[in-house]
Amino acid sequence: MLDIRWMRENRQALAEAMVKLNDQEAPWELALELDERRRELLQRSEGLREERNTGSKQIGALFREKKVDEANTLKQRMSDIGAEIAQLDEQLRSVETEFRDAMMRIPNPPDSDVPVAPDEEGNVVLSQWGELPQFDFSPQAHWDLGPQLDIIDFERGVAASGSRFYFLKGAGARLQRVLSNWFLDVHVNEHGYTELYPPLMVRGHAMEGTGNLPKFGDNLYRDAEEDYWFIPTAEVSVTNLHRDEILEPGALPLYYVASTPCFRREKMSAGQDVRGIKRVHQFQKVEMVKFVEPSTGRDELESLTQAAEVLLQRLDLPYRRVAIATGDLSFVASIKYDLEVWAAGCQEWLEVSSCSLFRDFQARRANIRYRPRAGARPEFVYTLNGSALALPRVIIALLENNQRADGSVLLPEVLSPLLGGDLEILPPGAAGP
RNA sequence: GGAGGGAUGGCCGAGAGGACGAAGGCGGUUGUCUUGAAAACAACUGUGGCAGCAAUGUCACCGGGGGUUCGAAUCCCUCUCCCUCCGCCA
User: Which residues of A are catalytic?
Assistant: First the structure.
């Protein structure tokens, strides 16, 4: 959510931002109109309240002085004022509801150095790391490798739960578990993050805090009976960890990391990426969330992104850092970098991490503030988050990039201590070395 | 799932229709005293909205929402959360 006062004073900048974002639906003009009506009604209602407050005090005093007649006359007048207030308040309530709803649907303006383009065609590759693997045979995609190795079972996943579900099995399931633990350990031990085990289901207001609601409910699973929403990323519950709090001086920065399943309906991407485990309804992801002071926002974004990059480098997976263009920016981000890993089998760059700075956009929605100094007025924190990393796509890249001509896979040496030296994944029935 | 009891400022805790933004205590800040510290004493010490350049004024907030009333922390309804006991359960 944006600061309405900033919006009032920066109409032009706001209009330009919406053009850059290629968002024609954002009801920012409506919000400004409603804001004016709101303030007008507020002033009238509060003026009357002031009158009533003094009047009511007088009534109390008159009764104590036993001036019953005078008190009753005044009571009648206050009653009339009360009726007028009630009428104004009713209008005010509906205006305020509309106003809030409009505000919740206005996206975060992009930072000045975000590439300006109407869609993802304008995304800019900022850097690339690692060599693309070369093969003297035709590399297979993971949807062939996985079943051959008996480590991904698509058919039985579909039988149990429908399309876009899968079982990881044996060395596949173990690989994901080991990677997840290792990612967590690196962030905790080397980057100063605190590990969390967060709720996987949240109330609607938590989803509003991160910007998933009201606009993007289509992508969420929900238990209607109990009114729980399933998190599409740990960002939701972890960002809401400090909802409605005022963090005391010295508390910032706060770094958190959690590994959780993520649940996504993927209605918007129907028909895309249907093969394999590129885009599924349930997947594991390690997510980093930061709460920081505004002045450090950009530096924190850089170190956040690097924390994710380090993992790809150690896994020796070729990747590139992409600056997301204005038209492709998410609703809540003011700037975003994607990390895309090369998958040699499907011949694609796959997004394994998305690192965003939200400025105070989420903090306003979730009401997360901090006190810069003892006794100072509370201000909104800046929030950031990034995946490090999304596991299925890392597994895809590991399998596809490290495959051998016979269909087996030799995982990178860095995983040896974590896998007890079992770096080879062999097809069932194949003789071990 | 059943039966009860609760939610008040940073924390503890009073308040039960009018002088209550809220006693008292703790904590915090500042000052006096002191070579310094402690103690003692004193003052200050919540969050937002609106108007204003500002000083300031005003409105709202006692878990959330709605209602009764001239007037609600206080009465009524409802939701959420917490606690106790019983049942069930990893």
Answer: 264, 279, 351, 354, 393
